[in-house]
Design brief:
Elements (H helix, E strand, L loop, with lengths): L6 E9 L2 E10 L4 H13 L4 E12 L1 H16 L3 E5 L3 H10 L7 E2 L2 H8 L8
Helix pairs in contact: 1-2
C-alpha cells in the first residue's frame, strides 16, 4: 500500500516467481513513482512475473502509462513479464494505439491472467 491517498496497491497473490497486485485510484504525476517503486520492490523480492489488476483505476495519465512501461522493462530485465488485468477502456485503447498491447497482454480478470500465466505441463504419453 502506498502513502498517497489517491493510489492503493495491494498484493493479492504471490506464488513462486508470480505476484498479483491490485491497483486502485489515480495513476498520475503524484502517484506514478509510488506505483513503480512498489512494483519494483515486488520484483526484487523474487516475483518478476507481475499481474497488475487495474479494476480500481479511476484515472491514468501519461505518467501512469510511463510507469507501466518502466515496470514492464524492469520485469523483463529480471527475466519476468508484466500482464494486466481488468484494464479500463481508455487505457486499453491507448495500449492498442501505441502497440504496447502486443507486449503487455491484458485479460478481463486477475483469475484469467493467472490461468494464462500458469505453465502447461505435458500429459502422459
Amino acid at each position: 500500500m502506498t502513502d498517497d491517498l489517491t493510489l492503493t496497491l495491494t498484493t493479492t497473490h504471490t506464488d513462486g516467481r508470480l505476484a498479483a497486485l491490485r491497483v486502485g485510484g489515480e495513476i498520475d504525476t503524484r502517484t506514478a513513482s509510488a506505483l513503480r517503486r512498489e512494483a519494483l520492490h515486488v520484483i526484487a523480492r523474487g516475483h518478476p512475473h507481475l499481474i497488475l489488476d487495474l479494476t480500481g483505476i479511476t484515472f491514468c495519465d501519461s505518467s501512469g502509462f510511463n510507469a507501466l512501461i518502466g515496470i514492464m522493462r524492469c520485469a523483463t530485465a529480471a527475466n519476468g513479464s508484466l500482464t494486466l488485468a481488468a484494464v479500463p477502456d481508455r487505457l486499453s485503447r491507448l495500449l492498442d494505439l501505441t502497440g504496447l498491447s502486443t507486449i503487455m497482454p491484458s485479460y478481463p480478470s486477475t483469475e484469467a491472467a493467472m490461468n494464462a500465466r500458469l505453465p502447461t505441463t505435458p500429459g502422459p504419453a
